[in-house]
Structures are given as structure tokens and as C-alpha cells.
Amino acid sequence: MLRKFVRDTRGNFAMLLAIAMVPVLGAVALAIDYTEMSRHRQATLNALDAANMATAWRLLSGESETEVRRFAQDFFEANLGPVKAKNVVLSVELPDQSAGGNTIKMSADLHYDPLFYGAFLALLGKEDTINIKLFAENEVRLKNTLEVALVLDNSGSMDEKGSGSGKKRLDLLKEAAKQLVDTLAAQGTLMKQVDKPVQFAVVPFAASVNVGTSNGSASWMDTEGRSSIHHENFDWGTMSSSLKVEKVNGVYKKTGTGWGTARNSIASRFSLFDDLRRKYCTKKDNKGNCTTWAEAPMTSWAGCVEMRPYPYNVDNTVPTTGNPDTLFVPMFAPDETDTTANGRQAYNNWWSDLLTSGTAANRQKYMPKYFTANEITGFADGKGPNLSCTVTPITPLADVTKTSGANQIKNAIDAMVSNGATNVPEGIAWGWRVVSGSEPFTQGRPDREKGNDKVVIVLTDGANTYYTASSLAAPNKQAAADEANNKSIYSNYGYASRERIFDGTSVSKTHNNSNYTKAMNQHMRQVCTNAKQAGLIVMTVSLDLSTSKSDEKEQINLLEECSSESRVRRDQKLFWNTTGAGLAETFRQIADELSNLRFVG
Known about the structure:
601 residues; alpha/beta; Rossmann fold; six-stranded mixed sheet; three-stranded antiparallel sheet; 12 helices; 13 strands; 31% helix; elongated; Tad_N; VWFA domain-containing protein
């Protein structure tokens, strides 16, 4: 009977087979389409990942939002593989470029047209439209490059021991700052194929900032003496006819016939340093009297500059010869009078007046004295034409992910010494200029480049200070005299009698240390505001400052006001009030903050 059934070819078997094949065909169609659908979805995900990464690099290169979106679409479509571009809708969410550390978000809506399953349903008489939609998304965090200026107080008080520690404040600072460099450098090496991912600069400050003697001929220095402040302490009219100096086309030149080969050359602060000569004996007679004299250079410019005239002292205006007041003027402290007042000496008398009569003011501005050699071998500590220039030079941005760059920055930190007064606004201004992409220092990325954070870390242990002569001791240990009515010792605002220290402030122009501090505080507030508005992240640290002292409390409040808002800690400022014992932990927290801006999964 079985053989008979096998030989039976009548239609009932075909009908049964057809009925049996319906679920089989449906399963096969579904399996094929499911496999193909999964392949399309994976291809879309792969294209999305590739497009997001490529778009991130495009965005960081500085292209416009329109160009970035066009690039994202083209790149995505080029990498879809088996997926038809018309079946996918790409959405791109770009970050707010006013701040770093954000993400690019991409999503794709994929419409899939089945290959077989739709036809299978049609065989069954079902005409419903097959509409399968898939959704995919991803997010790429922009790992920003980082440029940090360490603006560090090197004033005399940094030589004191840190509170709660047996070490000097400056030594504690060196250890903490170098650890910060090491931490961020190690993280920077994770950013593969990125040029200079983490750069640091060092800006030591005290009463002034040292830009480095190698920059004496830089285009941003006032080499021709054109700035309105360049000659404010000099009276070139006192020169003799043979050594005449006069203004020619806006520049003072040596026009007298006695200048020899130097005739018609520029007379400036730089030339004054060059013209200072010391004389020394090369031959004596049998009685010990010198019979032959020789001359040699006396000293040279140490690298410090005055603050630019307001408002350029509180901003980052690019220096140009077309606006001479934007150029930087070398510091040159005038020789003060030889005369005494009631036994009190001038604070910075370092050269012979040459005049035998006249007022202290006349003696101070008498120019021929600088062209007459003196028999001296050097200057008292912190005195002479480089008065108030006590700090080591700025070290520009260097890539600390490279051994050479890290060593350069850490060596600069180790080289710092404590001496002098405190001028925080000048330190902040130079910190800004160092990380800026424009002159005077150009090692930084362009200021508008996306995906780069420019950070200024400011640490100080004291209030801003500028001193009247009477508040300091002269070489004879008595309070210094001010017979020339300078109203202050010379520092990087020049003499306070010129009142540049009050420009742009509401402080009464009564000349005393308290008002000088108030004026500097207002300048500090302005430079902080300007820097933050320019997109800088400002982090501030007060070290061993006391709220029980009015001037130090004011500095604490000012530092907190100066700081930026944290991007990773809600409603918190980037300000730390710390002690010597807590300084290492403070810098560890700073490292964490900077890491969170960049190295997030």
C-alpha cells in the first residue's frame, strides 16, 4: 500500500504540499530580510561612527558650521555601503563652541524596504504597505587641546614658610606645579595623532614681569622709543650741543657732531643701557695712582617691561608700530639724586649726578650723566637701572607631552626665586598674552580655533603693592627720601607722580600705598573680566591669605571674583583659598578640573 501511495500523482498531494510550503516560504523570506535588515542597520551604524569621528576633526580644524554639516552628510553617505542614501535621514547636533569639552551627536533614521517578505505577503492577498524603520545614534566627545599659563607669585613673601608646613611657600609651589605638569602631560599622551595636545607656559611675577632679554629686538618692543611713556623720565634738552639729542620724525636721535659713528642713531632706553660705561684702572704709578684708564659696559637690560598705558595694560591688544602705546617699553629706573634730606638718601641713587648744584628733580632728569663713565663695579642688590626687575623670564608655551618640553617647563619652575613686590594684574595680563595666538608670544593656537582651551592659573600670597619711597628703607637703613617728588619708587607703572597707576580707575589720586593697592585692584578686576570675555578659563589660588587682614581679605574676594565658573562642578567657581600644607591637594584638584574638561569617556 505504501508503494501505491508513493506512486500516486493526483492533485491532492500537490495541494497539500503547497499549503505546507506557505509557512516555510514565509520563514525563509523573513529570515533573509531580517539578515539583510541587520546588515543595513550595522552599515548605518558604521557610517555614523565614521562620520562622527571625521566630523569632529573637521570641526576642530576651524571650518564653519555650514561646511561641517555638509561634510558630515557627504562622509556619511559615502560610507553607507549597501544602504541607499535616500533611505536614511541624518541628524547632526553640533556643540556650542563658546566652551570646550562638548560633544557632537549624530542620529540616523533608516527606512528598510524588504526584499522578499513583502512579495510573500502579496501572494497571500495582503496588500498592506511594509514600512520598517530603524534608529541609530552615537556621540563623540571633543577632547580639547589645552594651553595653560602658570602665573605664579615670586614676591619676597614667597620665601616665608607655608602655613602648616616646614617648607618655604615657593618650594611648595614648585613641587605642586611640577606635579600638575606631569599629570596633564601623561593624560595628553592619550590624544593620539594630535599636535601639541597639552602645552604649558610659566609666567613668574613680582613687581614686574620679565619677557626675556632675547626679545629686546622683537617687533612688539618699543625699540625706537615711540611710546608716549618711553621718555617720560628723561630730559634730552639737557644734553650738550656736541652730544645733542633731538626728535626727528617722532624718534629721538643722536644728532650732535660729537657722537662719532653713533651719530643719527636712535636714543632710547635700550641705547642708555648700551651707553652706560664703567671705568677701571689698567696701569698705576709707583705711588698707586692710576695713570691709564679703560672703559667697559656697565650693565644691560634685564628683560622687564613697564605696563602699557591704559587701557592696553588690561587687555591683549596686538602691539603695532601704528599705535606706539601698544608696544612694550623696557624698564629703566632713573638714577636718583646724590643729595640727602635730613640725612635721608634717595631710594635708588646708583650713578653720579654730574651736576654740582640744582634741585633733586633736575639732577634726576639730567641726561649727560649717563654718558660719563663711573668707577663702580656693580649695583646694590635690587638697585640700579633694573630696579624692580627681580623675576626670571617668561617661558613660552611648550608641549609637555614631549620630554624636552616637559623638562623646559619644569626647569623654569625650579629656576624661580622670591624677591620684590606684588603686581597680580600684570601677571594675569602676561598670562593672557602667553596663551594667546597673537603677538607678543605666538606659540598658542589661534584664539578662535575650536576644540582648544586656553587657561590661566594665577597664584599669589599677598595683596597688590606699590610703594612710596618713605615706606621703604634707603641704603643707610633710614626711610628713603623723595626730594624729586616721584611719589613712589620706580616700578613697572613708572613713578606714581605720572599717575598712570590711577588711569582707568575711580581711586582718589592721593599718593599713598593704600590708594596704589586700590588702583591695582581695579586694574586686576578689569583684566580678569576682559580675559574671561575673550574666552579664557581663569583659575585662581590664594595662598596663606587671611580674612582677618583687610588688604588680604580684599585680595581673596578679588581672586574669587576673577575666577571662571566651573564647567564640571555646578555653581562653583574655579577658586581655591588654601594654605601651604594644602597646596599640593589644591593643585591635584586643579588637575582633576582640567582633566574633566577634556578626558571624558
